[in-house]
Amino acid sequence: MLSDVMEDYLKAIYVLQTEEGPPVSTSAVADYLGKTPPTVTDMLGKLEDRELVDREPYTGVELTPEGEAVALEVVRHHRLIEAFLAERLDYDWSEVHAEADRLEHHISEEFERRVAETLGDPEVDPHGDPIPGADLEPVEEDDAVRLHACEEGETVVVARVSDRDEDELDYLADAGIVPGNELEVVDVAPFGMVTVRSPAGDQSLPESVARSIRVRPVEATA
Asked: Least crowded by CB within 10 Å, which of 63, 98, 175, 207?
């Protein structure tokens, strides 16, 4: 039996692997979970003892097939709960992440099945992140790129937005930068600001925010 904390670590490693690729550094896990590196190192050792992760000194950590299966189940729970809260209980998209964090470890497989059925087996959560299927097969990465890497003049569609910062999500919603909306890249400044034209008008985004937004070229969505 794994603790909720262990499952949180496996989920974090999975998310970081899909975003940046393996191996995942100890510092990246620490930043993601808000833990100190020594605390993370200790937990990674426990996960390695259970054969849920493989570690290479000074390189990083990667999920084993067993660890990935656990992580996929937790991620599926989390993102289904987010979708249910947003679609059926009128939660704002900035509120669902924290609520799903509290619930993801404690729902039964029957509850998961009924939520998925009620929602019509959604493929993505409110932030555009893919929901693993009931078979818990790894989700194939799509062709979405980070907004800060786009060039001036491109027209793109928002595919995914990071769900880690509630204030940032509130801002992006007001700015019209949500999955499915088109953006025109107006300017990419050399010092990091990215200006886009959204349905709500021109928006200037710091590079850190632009990095949290994944987009696809319009032609790729046609």
From this structure: 98
